[in-house]
Amino acid sequence: QVQLVESGGGLVQAGGSLRLSCAASGRSFSRFAMGWFRQAPGKEREFVASISGSVITTYADPVKGRFTISRDNAKNAVYLQMNSLKPEDTAVYYCAALERWYGSDYGRRPNAYDYWGQGTQVTVSS
């Protein structure tokens, strides 16, 4: 089992920055691929970014150039640095862990992930 706990969400003005953290507990964190997803009210959960165990990163088009995913295996943590935030980035952000990595396209699918955190709210005001 892997437990995931997100933190770092909050209210920020458009153009501002936030850094989300996801702390993982459990076994063999370094071999898991990790992903960030988000869900806005009335919308489906959507892919934001992923990072494989070999540190291959993938981003959704709306966040490319603004968001950066990273991981620290020594701390069992994954991060999402979000810059130049826009009101349309407002959502609950979820951290997820994937045990079997079959490539970047596979890592975009929410149903590929085995473990999920409870989410952290990010609100961007205009």
Question: Would you write up a description of this structure?
Answer:
The protein has strands at residues 2-7, 10-13, 18-26, 33-39, 46-51, 57-59, 67-72, 77-82, 91-98, 115-116, 120-125. It is mainly β. Strands 2, 4, 5, 6, 9, 10 and 11 form a seven-stranded mixed β-sheet that branches. It has a four-stranded antiparallel β-sheet with strand order 1-3-8-7, with no helix packed on it. The mean pLDDT is 96.
Any descriptors?
seven-stranded mixed beta sheet; 11 strands; mainly beta; 0% helix; globular; four-stranded antiparallel beta sheet; 126 residues
Q: What proportion of the residues is helical, as a percent range?
A: under 10%
What is the helix tally?
A: 0
Tell me the series of helices and strands, N- to C-terminal: EEEEEEEEEEE
Count of individual beta strands: 11
* Major beta sheet summary: 7 strands, mixed
% residues in beta strands: over 45%
Contiguous uncertain segments of 5+ residues: none
In one word, what is the shape?
globular
What class, by secondary structure content? Answer: mainly beta
For the CA atoms, what is the radius of gyration?
13 Å
The overall pLDDT, averaged over residues, is 96
Span of the ends, CA to CA: 40 Å
